Amino acid sequence: MTGTGDLRRDAFDPAIDVGQKRGNRNAKWSKYAAETVPAWVAEHDFRPPPAVTDAMQATIDRGDFGYHDLEDDVGEAFARWSAERYGWSPDPDLVHTCVDVLQGVTAAVTALAEPGAGVILTPPIYHIFLQICPTARRPQLEWLMRYDHDLGWTLDPDDLEALVRREPGARVLLWCHPHNPTGWVAGTPVLERIVELAHAYDFYVVSDEIHSDLVYRDSSSPFVPMLSIPGAAERVVAVTSPAKAFSISGLRCAVMAYADRDLRRRVRQAHPPLLLGHAARTGIDATVAAWTHGSAWVDELVGYLTERRDQLRARLASEAPAVRLHRPDSTFLAWLDVSACILGENPAARLLEHAGVAMSEGADFGTNGHGHVRLNFGTSEPVLDEVLDRLAPWLQE
Length: 397
Known about the structure:
Mean pLDDT: 95
Structural class: alpha/beta
Distance between the termini: 54 Å
CATH class of the largest domain: Alpha Beta
CATH architecture of the largest domain: 3-Layer(aba) Sandwich
Number of helices: 15
Shape: globular
């Protein structure tokens, strides 16, 4: 297997094969017509490092695809990765797998907020989160993001306290950390205040940390795991996966992490024992390899994405100054305010029709989303240039 010292083979390669993406029925590249350039779903275009594919190939070569007992390997790999990257060492015994982050998030939310109890979201927010409360029959509450010309999109904990005072039935804060779609990374003071409020007002935090490995070096705050905050153990469930950083979402493996055994038991026992199932063997192969051998590769990926982020900002500033973009501190997603560009109620649909670029509609992300689009810049330099070549004429006042 490729190890951390084999940098020649594990070096990040920014090349992409568009024809292969379409031929493989990759959802990002096959949803729209062949003449459309996709910049919508939150998945980057780059191959995972050889360490990941080597691990999967080893299982294929053995020809053994039966039941497995690899759950402990995932918890141990996650613990090592967290300690190395973030200085936080979770207990592997308090980590278990699930199929993907959305499954884990939904399981934790419905376990900790009984029917009729409020769930707090932070719009504009990852649009799939907006499906959880209606389908689970939990009231949806909103801790709204604020926009500041200098600071960009942020959340003010004072607004959260006002909300939970007003809504004493709130039981869960669904926390997107780092934040999708804005790319905001909450600093330690904000995280500490949330934990204090969770104790004071009796609510729990379900922290989606799937974008944690994609924080830029010039971010105003580094990524800090929510469970590393003092007092978080009794109040926080973290759900994460290497899927976004390593582009392995289709392999279906994520983890739910705790720092309190009783909280873990409560979440697990809230659902029928067989409901959550288990991660697939190939997903575990890829996940363990990514978290064991992928550190140098991720560093190179983040460096390359920094260049694409800055490419996007520079070209918009020069060719489409009517667009407002605050530099994202994380993710490969740009939250663009195009309200000055006279594109109508559905700007992403208009730009798809006229520019041939597929992006995500801002209104789908809830309150504060109108007049925005979300653009995925996690692609090669030539593809991003084509995206901007097509968009620039339509992003004018």
